[in-house]
Design a protein that fits this description.
206 residues, alpha/beta, Arc Repressor Mutant, subunit A, D-Maltodextrin-Binding Protein, domain 2, 44% helix, elongated
Length: 206
């Protein structure tokens, strides 16, 4: 027994007219009529008395209304249970990303990967490197794409994905702009605009 047919039956019983019911259900009148007939054939009883202008419920149809509502209600409850079971069965992967995450071209590959592995629920956490590093240590994120030194001594497993370069941007007419190369010592007396004090990139420049 089709749940959709039961909903169509209830709408037709409520309105009392095939044409008006079919319009509200966004379907053709002939399709609606065929679906009601299919229900009647399955139940082996007439659900409506048909006239040229309207349809009226038979005694069988009247008795079928509360049954329909109960079936639809129980079916919806089961669909809700399926969602709950799914959420428990699926493993949740909490993935940390830095704000510049998309600049290295990872968004689409990861999206494709997780779409092809629907057994995982993926939750993205966007934050700076320092906070995500702490989240990794505390276990609140499963993995993260961050700036870090792959040789640093800690208990995290690091896989180098891409190398990045920290560059100095300065006007060409400034004294720094006249140099082809610079060392950290060349910058020690300069006033620099850097990221927040707790960020990884600020840390490596101190």
């Amino acid at each position: 027994m089709e749940i959709t047919y039961l909903k169509e039956f209830l709408k037709t019983a409520e309105i009392g007219n095939y044409l008006a019911a079919s319009e509200e259900l966004f379907m053709s009148q002939s399709s609606l009529s065929k679906h009601i007939q299919a229900l009647e054939k399955e139940l082996n009883v007439p659900l409506f008395n048909r006239t040229t202008r309207k349809v009226e419920l038979t005694e069988y149809g009247e008795a079928f209304i509360p049954v329909c509502r109960q079936i639809i209600s129980q079916y919806q409850k089961y669909l809700d249970q399926i969602k709950e079971i799914d959420s428990k069965i699926k493993e949740t992967l909490c993935l940390g990303v830095i704000p510049s995450f998309d600049s290295v071209g990872l968004t689409k590959p990861l999206s494709d990967l997780f779409n092809n592995h629907s057994q995982y629920n993926v939750r993205l956490v966007e934050d700076d490197t320092a906070n995500l590093y702490n989240a990794l240590k505390e276990g609140t994120v499963s993995m993260a794409f961050i700036y870090c030194d792959p040789k640093s001594d800690d208990d995290l497993v690091k896989i180098r994905f891409v190398e990045d370069h920290l560059v100095i941007v300065t006007p060409v007419e400034s004294k720094l702009g006249k140099h082809k190369t610079l060392t950290i010592n060349d910058l020690k007396n300069e006033s620099l605009t850097l990221l927040e004090s707790h960020s990884y990139l600020k840390k490596v420049t101190i």
